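Support request from a user on the community tier.

User writes: "When I paste my structure tokens into the form, the page sometimes reloads and wipes my input. The last time it worked, I copied everything first. Here is what I submitted, just in case something in the input itself triggers the reload:"
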């Protein structure tokens, strides 16, 4: 009797022949993928003529043959595979590869979790890959919905000094993302409003969510987390990453890995310090984070990516940008000093995209221009008309605007010679904010608080 490996090869040849029999005319290569477990499976075949390709479902008979190959593999040292990939050329040569799950199965070939649970029960493995253990058995244990997060906990958190303060960390993350934006690249750290995102090429990554009041949540996962590997192989419990965490550390602001049971760290920032539950120290998850541990590391990354490493002028420009970012004072001129320098190919680097990235991150200097008088009048007119406040004694056609330090006073003056107390007076700031007062309050008095509120809004936005 043939040994199992020879039997598997003979059956694979039979599969290839059956697929060739249903191939369209002119085909040059076919690739079939069989993703199987003890209780479920899916399969597809793609035919190519060198220019175009067409895909479909292979005959059911080939799936049964592939299942036989898998049963033979179960008796070998490597155990049953999760996918068999068969490639056949028109000249008759073929190759068969087996995927044992060392890396995650592509989404299009992934079967339901219960299929893998049944397979692991039928064919126990000495060591289950972390991704497979999480997919099959995480059971939502890393989700932290708001109601759950609001429950009191007696566990204590601890602080970590390995991460820079939030303001500095966010500026560094933004600086790295600016290089990606200016280059128009899809690779590297990214920044969206109140969100930093990073995925490495090793299946590790993190997100940084900013919240009001100077709070933040930094979480993610490393592909080779020893803690998760041990947990999904039954050697320990999952680490309580949220031990001592406040209620606002919930699934909404956690890295998407939490939904799949692959979150390996979570740190939160409040009251001036980074805190953590049973997460590893930040230095141990460096693969999941951008290179933002020091200013020098950030500047080296920027100048290297731009091809200007060792250039003192470029380094100084990048350093100045980083300082401005930390204080929320990045200007277009500062961006131009780095990305529109004479020695750079400006066709490859978009300074406007770079400045917009700083703006999206909320670290660009906010320089308000005075609102035109006509716009201020239009704001008040729309307010009056939309609320049905116009009257014969207060016609919007007679609105006038008087300039103040940070906006306009807009009103309908009383008829000549008349003094009318309590008459409506509107104030429109240069950011378009509308306030209503009356002639009972002197404009000089009202303007003081009006200007203070405007400056407070600027401070919040900065």
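"...and here is what came back when it finally went through:"
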């Amino acid at each position: 009797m043939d040994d199992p490996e020879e039997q598997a090869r003979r059956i694979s040849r039979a599969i290839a022949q059956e697929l060739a029999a249903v191939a369209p005319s002119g085909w040059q290569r076919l690739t079939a993928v069989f993703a199987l477990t003890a209780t479920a499976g899916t399969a597809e075949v793609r035919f190519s003529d060198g220019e175009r390709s067409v895909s479909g479902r292979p005959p059911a008979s080939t799936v049964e043959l592939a299942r036989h190959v898998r049963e033979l593999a179960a008796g070998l040292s490597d155990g049953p595979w999760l996918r068999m990939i068969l490639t056949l050329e028109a000249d008759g040569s073929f190759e068969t590869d087996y995927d044992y799950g060392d890396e995650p199965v592509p989404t299009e070939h992934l079967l339901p979790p219960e299929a893998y649970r049944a397979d692991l029960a039928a064919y126990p493995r000495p060591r289950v890959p972390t991704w497979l253990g999480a997919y099959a058995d995480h059971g939502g244990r890393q989700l932290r919905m708001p109601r759950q997060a609001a429950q009191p906990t007696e566990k204590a958190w601890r602080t970590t000094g390995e991460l820079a303060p939030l303001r500095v960390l966010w500026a560094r993350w933004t600086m790295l993302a600016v290089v990606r934006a200016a280059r128009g690249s899809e690779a590297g750290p990214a920044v969206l409003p109140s969100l930093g995102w990073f995925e490495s090429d090793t299946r590790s990554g993190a997100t940084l969510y900013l919240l009001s009041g100077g709070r933040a949540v930094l979480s993610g996962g490393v592909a080779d987390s020893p803690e998760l590997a041990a947990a999904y192989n039954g050697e320990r419990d999952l680490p309580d990453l949220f031990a001592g965490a406040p209620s606002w550390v919930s699934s909404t602001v956690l890295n998407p890995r939490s939904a799949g049971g692959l979150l390996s760290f979570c740190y939160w920032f409040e009251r001036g310090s980074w805190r953590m539950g049973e997460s590893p120290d930040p230095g141990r998850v460096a693969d999941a984070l951008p290179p933002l541990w020091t200013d020098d590391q950030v500047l080296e990354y920027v100048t290297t990516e731009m091809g200007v490493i060792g250039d003192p002028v470029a380094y100084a420009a990048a350093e100045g940008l980083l300082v401005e970012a930390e204080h929320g004072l990045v200007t277009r001129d500062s961006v131009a000093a780095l990305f529109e320098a004479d020695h750079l190919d400006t066709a490859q680097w978009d300074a406007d995209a770079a400045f917009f990235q700083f703006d999206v991150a909320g670290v660009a200097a906010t320089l308000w221009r005075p609102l035109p008088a006509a716009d201020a009048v239009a704001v008040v007119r729309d307010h009056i008309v939309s609320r049905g406040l116009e009257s014969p004694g207060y016609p919007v056609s007679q609105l006038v605007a008087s300039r103040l330090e940070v906006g306009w006073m807009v009103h309908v003056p009383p008829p000549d010679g008349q003094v009318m107390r309590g008459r409506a007076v509107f104030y429109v700031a240069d950011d378009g904010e509308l306030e209503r007062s009356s002639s009972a309050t002197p404009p000089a008095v009202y303007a003081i608080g009006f200007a203070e509120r405007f400056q407070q809004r600027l401070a919040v936005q900065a």
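Agent notes: The reload is a front-end session timeout and is unrelated to the input. Residues 381 and 396 are 6 Å apart (CA to CA). The chain has a mean pLDDT of 93. Escalated to web team.
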